[in-house]
Amino acid sequence: MLKKDLGLLVLILVVGLVVSILNPRFLSPINLGNTANLIGLFGLFSIGAGIVIITGGIDLSVGSVFALLGVIYIDLLVGWQLPWWLATIVVVLGGVALGCIHGFLITRLRLQPFIVTLCGLLIYRGIARYYTNDGTAGFEYGQSFPTLEWVTTGRTLGVPHSFIMFLVVAAIMALVLHCSVFGRYLFAVGKNEEAARYSGIRTERVVAAAYIISGGLAGLSSIYLAMYTRSISPASHGNFYELYGIAAAVLGGCSLRGGEGSILGIVLGAILLQILQNLVNLLGIPSSLNFAVMGTVILIGVIADQQLTRLRERRARR
Amino acid sequence: MSGSGDPRSGKARLYPVTPPLLELASVSKSYPGVRALDRVSLKVERGEVLALIGENGAGKSTLMKILGGVVEPTEGAIRIEGVEHRSLSVAGAMAAGIAFVHQELNLFDNLDVAANVMIGREPVFAGPLRLIDRAALSAKVMPLLQRLGVDFQADTPVAELSLAQRQLVEIAKALSLDARIVIMDEPTSSLTASETARLLRVIAELKAGGVAVIFISHRLVEVEHCADRVVVLRDGAVVGELAKGEIDHDTMIRMMIGRDLKSLHVPADRPPGVTVLELAGVRTPAHPEHAIDLALRSGEILGMAGLVGAGRTELARVLFGIDRRLAGELSLEGRKLAIATPRDAIDHGIFLVPEDRKRSGLVLEFSVKENVSLANLAAFAVGAIIKSGAERRNADERRTALDIRTASIDTLVGTLSGGNQQKVVLAKWLSMTPKVVIFDEPTRGIDVGSKSEIYKLMRGLADSGVAVLMISSDMEEVIGVSDRILVMREGRIAGFLERPEFSEENVMHLAVGRRDLQAAEAVVC
């Protein structure tokens, strides 16, 4: 697993080096700061996506969760005039609640994760648009929340706080995934659910917990994204973001077959994905090709994963 | 087989008279370390029902796989109507007219009967779309169904059919392929008496049509009634043949058993102690019609014998909380016990070493250490965080105690030998305090050396006061290791044997049973 992460780190450094040679602006403090901010924003929910993928599942709903929780968040702050910390707690718990629903449907009603979260994707987007009458939710003129803004969009010594938050969450999740009982169970369930069950692990709870974590992180991301964009058009806000999360996790070595992956890998995957986006901008590649680049990267990630597994199996057979 | 299809027209005739339909000449099959078949020779004539009997592991399934072209024999030849083959391929076996009615049926649930019978050979309309000609399909299938006298239609979805009806669909499929040899593997094991009677009538009908039937069954009463000839296999070799007049229940049992059993028995330190786990009226989902009463005693190895499908694993699954108990009560050391999940069973000290260790016993891609601690990880953790030192120490201790041969406790379990993998499963449970340990086929696929180590471990557990339940299909193991034997048959307890009564014959008599003779007499075959 360490080898995979090392390979990714080398790839990031090589790509960074090539881009900075072709366009020195890559290393400018402004560009690095902006890229770090985006890494933080997209990395937060990529960790959730990765945890779900480790159980062998998938969470397609997060992009729509951002739209729904985003418009609710702004409404709580603007319409309901709730204190910012209370609104924040409500929204994060909202993400947890959506995760609970997904977990319940998947483990108790035994629905397929793809279907459950695909329906979530459609339902939450629809509700978000209905909530604002398809209008844009935004703050009123001159409205400001100094503490909230400092926590979400502020910077310390040029380092965006979203990036710091991402690293803090990553550190906590690394502890959970790689050092805790729950983390071990998560891998066991992803690798061999039956053996996990025969070892007394309550596999359904473990799987549900993964969706709850993903939901909670999506709730947290909703706040960071809402404060970053400051206005939310529910028809487009967060569109396809679930795919960024999945892409980062897959690039970072999470196998869609389950049971494989690391937080370090997901962090590196999120970094690589944003550097690739940055590269599109800096190298003058038409920005319309953005998704094509992302799609290609996911494809290569999956192919590489499959080939490596095959190679490992062949070597094991020998 | 060549494209022209009919092997009869091919090679030179080797016999002056008509050669037998199928002949095996000294066929052997060896796997590394095991001789599954040892110079088996047998003949099947046209319109003959040949019954093949033998204990679990006598070599019946290997023989079937060779006839089906799935497995290649190591030595010997197969002659079909005198044409010699070194081995058959799956397509070759089909072309030669060999068809199977499998124990686990190979039908498509989502298609109807006609589609299943003609799968891969559907009549189509001319044209690029190759649309299926439903009328022609039915026209081909209907006569076959009529011939078998079935009680369903060509357009009945297979999902709506009972197991017995599905078997008939398989037989219809065999007939549609112009099968001349139909091999049935335990066809009656899950049929009711009347369904069995109908199947036996169908066999008679096939026989009348000149089709040869190879009938593998543990149900000796049926064999007695419908076989023209019986071939008995034991340890991969043919030990005898009975002609029509000689086929008799007791003779068959006597021929199936009679191996020289090495004594594996290590006597217990002391007589069995108190009852640890008691089952009263327990019903399993697999056999809800039978209630099971049983007491597992401290210090005793209770061997559980029975044929495959007798409901032994199903009982173990219920005791361990994998399957729901439909009725009845469990009590552990006199206290009532509610077991809904494996966690409950584990927390009460009831452990299961499962039948399929690769699937249910171990996470193969986990290390030895991670597998050993998987069932009681909380014991090696402070709060939610695993204490790596404590976990390693436990794994190291278990490794030494059980003599697990591995380069390191960080080695992936999947790379270990079968015997060492089984020891890792045991190490997982021995990291806790067991009260009842259920072993399901504890030494299947394990080398001789590891086997005796596992027997010693079982004895050690029993001597320390644990109640050991050992499910085994290996007669040598059941007789050699158990202190008492419980024989299951078709979901119920057929009987108990105490050590002085231990013999293969007694176990087989209980396992095979004398199934309602009168019902069988009524069957005209």
Describe, in plain words, how this protein is organized in 3D.
- The complex is a heterodimer of chains A (318) and B (525).
- Chain A starts with a helix and ends with a helix.
- In chain A, the strands form two sheets. A two-stranded antiparallel sheet of chain A has the order 1-4. In chain A, strands 2-3 form a two-stranded antiparallel ribbon.
- Chain A is built from 13 helices and four strands.
- With 318 residues, chain A is mainly α.
- The longest helix of chain A has 28 residues, at 290-317.
- In chain A, helix 2 (29-54) packs parallel to helix 7, helix 8 crosses helix 10 (203-229) and helix 11 crosses helix 12 (263-282).
- Chain A has helices spanning 2-22, 29-54, 62-78, 84-107, 113-131, 146-153, 161-179, 181-191, 193-198, 203-229, 241-251, 263-282, 290-317; strands spanning 137-138, 155-156, 159-160, 231-232.
- Chain A has one domain (2-313): ABC transporter involved in vitamin B12 uptake, BtuC.
- Chain B is α/β, with parallel strands linked by helices and 525 residues long.
- Chain B folds into three domains: 49-69 and 97-256, 3-Layer(aba) Sandwich (Rossmann fold), CATH 3.40.50; 276-349 and 435-513, 3-Layer(aba) Sandwich (Rossmann fold); 364-432, no CATH class.
- Chain B contains 18 helices and 22 strands.
- Chain B has helices at 60-67, 90-95, 113-117, 134-148, 163-176, 193-208, 220-226, 249-256, 312-319, 342-347, 357-361, 368-372, 388-402, 418-430, 448-463, 475-481, 504-512, 517-521; strands at residues 22-31, 34-44, 49-53, 75-80, 83-85, 98-101, 181-185, 212-216, 229-234, 237-243, 275-283, 292-297, 301-306, 327-332, 335-337, 350-353, 381-382, 385-386, 436-440, 467-471, 484-489, 492-498.
- Chain B has a six-stranded mixed sheet with strand order 6-7-8-3-9-10, with helices on both faces.
- In chain B, helix 14 packs parallel to helix 15.
- The longest helix of chain B has 16 residues, at 193-208.
- Chain B is globular and about 75 Å long.
